[in-house]
Structure formats: structure tokens, C-alpha cells
Fold:
Amino acid sequence: MDCKKVSMGRDQLLDPLASAWGTIPSEELKMVASPLANQPSEYIKASRDEKQIGKVRTLSVQTANNGTDIFFRLSWPDETKDAEFKDNNSFPDGCGIIMPLRGGDPPIEEMGSKQAPVNAWMWKASLGDAARNTVGQGLGTTEFSEQAPIAAKAAWQDGRWVVVFARALAVPQLPDECTQLPPGGSVKIGFAVWDGSNGERAGVKSFSKEWRELKVEA
Structure:
């Protein structure tokens, strides 16, 4: 997966419906259900049908950088716009990006390990134009950063979500919480989607089962 270098401003690329995204290559990823056996909650293991987890099975991904910031545009089909918590069966829609925090090959299905942590970016429709930065060291260990160096904007129309994440390529002030993305370098990357009306939240989601290599064009 190539992160194309472009001469465009942050505000332009942060707009999920901007025509500029029409010039950025798109890649369709196959998504699978997260394994029910990997859920840290015994209640979820006992109450969910594994065949019904992971409603979203395809995700369109575009990525670009302008030399200062990196952008990811994620798009997927969703017949209902779920932007708030309604009851125990309906949650906000969402999506996320995951990368090794310090390189290596962390187990993607288990959100990393103590020896190989991961950095994840998470957006939920209930957050509006905001995203959260997290660090994972295994199942059930997600810790949210106090500072959120990630911006996000989203749009839902015609039965489809479109979400753009934006972050500086380098975040030197948070070396233990953010994967650094130097131009000319590469990093493993994965993606996740939550369909709120399907009762998906936390570890119950669709995800890209294997790491992909992201090359950041200089």
C-alpha cells in the first residue's frame, strides 16, 4: 500500500468529500470478523453468535501525505447511520487504524503484546470530528492517550460512511504513544470497522486479518 506524496493542504485533504481524493488511488480490503475466542469479556463470548460478528466485509482505503501530515480516507457500506449509544444492542459506528508502535511483528488479532505494543487510531461516530490515540499491549489492555494528535472528519451519505484521519508524520513529543512515520519509510498497518447497529463495539468488529506494508512516499 503506497502513501502518495501530494501538494495539497491539510484542510483540503481532511475533507472526506473533497474532489482531491479522486486523484488518490484506492485499495479494496477484505475484512473478517474478530475471533470470538479472543474477546476478553466472558459475557460477550457467551452472548454473541460468531456468525453475526463482523458485518462489514469490504473496506476502501486511500492514503496520502503532503510532507508534513499523513491522511487516511476509509469508506465502507453501512445502511444505517449510528451516531450514539441507544441500548445494549446498538452502538456508534466506528473505524480504526493499527500499527506497530516500535516496529516488529505484533500479533494483530490480539492488539499487540507487552513485548510488541501497537498504536491504534480510533474514530467513533459519537465523537464527531475527533479521534482517539491508543496503545495496546494485548487483549483488553488498550490505554487512551491524554493528548490526541489525530484529527478526523466524517460523512455518511447514500448508505456509506467516509472518514478521514489526519496526523503529523512525526510526533516527537509522544514517542511512547505514537508510531513515527518518516517520509521514505514503511510500516505495517491494519484496519478495523465497527457496525453499531450490529451490536459491535470494543473487540467485536471487522478487521483486516493480516498486516499490510504501508510505504510513505518522500
About this structure: The radius of gyration is 16 Å. The chain has a mean pLDDT of 91.
